[in-house]
Amino acid sequence: MTNSQSEDANGKKIACGICGIILGALGIHKFILGYTTEGLVMLLVSLLTCGLGSPVMGIIGLIEGIMYLTKSDTEFYNTYMTSKKGWF
Fold first, then answer.
1. pLDDT band at 5 (very low <50, low <70, confident <90, very high)
2. 9-52 tens-digit pLDDT
3. How far is CA 48 from CA 19, 24, 52, 80, in A?
4. Is 37 exposed, middle or buried (0-12, 13-18, 19+ CB in 10 A)?
5. How far apart are CA 14 and CA 10, in angstroms?
6. How do the domains of the chain map onto residue ranges?
7. Is the Cβ–Cβ distance between 57 and 46 less than 8 Å?
8. 35 and 16 in contact (C-beta within 8 Å)?
9. Are the C-beta atoms of residues 24 and 60 closer than 8 Å to each other?
């Protein structure tokens, strides 16, 4: 991993982690990573259930946010930016 990739991975890791913890039910962290389908699933489940699905999506976002922040930059880059692992 080059230095610019490391900086990009670190910036996205922090942004995704914080957004996952705070705005997890809306799937913002998925959109930041470029996972449009997964982000839309989270957003639509939260909105189309009139908020009833939001707690579940919020817990998923919280777990993913913590997972993002606890990974090293290299591990985050390899897992979410190279391999494109969409869920957990």
1. confident
2. 889 999 999 999 999 999 999 999 999 999 999 999 999 999 99
3. 21, 16, 9, 27
4. exposed
5. 6
6. 3-82
7. yes
8. no
9. yes
